[in-house]
Amino acid sequence: MKKILMTLAAVLCCAISVTAQEAQAERNQISNITLSNVQYAHHDEKMSAGEAIGKVLAGIATGQTSVQATEYEEDVKNAIIRGLSSAHLFRFNDGLLTSGTMQEGDLVVDAVITNIQAKSSSRTWKDKNDKTQVTTTYTGVVEAMLTMKDANTGQTIASHTFSGQGTASSSFDTSEKAIKDAIGRFAGRITSWLNQSRPLQANIIEGNSVKKDKQKEVYIDLGTREGAFTGLHMGVFIVKTVAGREAKQQIGKLRVESVQGDDISLCKVQSGGKDIKAALDAGQQLLVISTD
Question: What are the φ and ψ backbone dihedral angles of 207, each rounded to 5 degrees?
């Protein structure tokens, strides 16, 4: 009888473990995402890199100029790919999805690049030796509209316009540097958009260190399997049911200090330590959602 009970207990533990893992997988399910189509809205203004830079430099004489720097179109396309590839819960596919390879939840993105602009403005001034100096500020601007669709149905899920701006201010800097800085910022904004639409979720499973009446550290059920990493910032929420609807109230912030396994990480409490400790002491369920 004792052996039977031990066997039943082991089976039950395994079942609970599998159920918990399935719940986590569903909670942070990864979607395949593909860049389907990229268009540029200013092909009629296309010019060589030398012509674009030359036009910007020529504008120094008048103080201001701007030009569509279309030679950076491929750089912007690559930035879109970087942005899609860096999000937590999206896996970028380098290639078009076909009807035979599509899975439920797969996504495609169409992009229209509306602006890749190089601008310059100049200011003339006198230094302490009464010599005339010229300071030129170069500004790069990148804008595009992305439309996300269900790969299987073609239904539009979301559409958003992104922009990135980079500035280089010095007589030694160039418009090229400003544009490339703008392209880098542009990629980051795409990643942020995806992470905000599909954040990582976890639960606080146990408190760790406490100082007076404040929680200083906690453990969460998020680890390497679902993409946790050191430095990830997360918000802490109390979950309530109001009139049959789920309501969340943020009470604090966390930062992942160390990832300690497939489904566990140690986090430092950055704010709300008192409220988090009180909630844990009261046995309340605390939901954790990524903010990066």
Answer: -80, 155
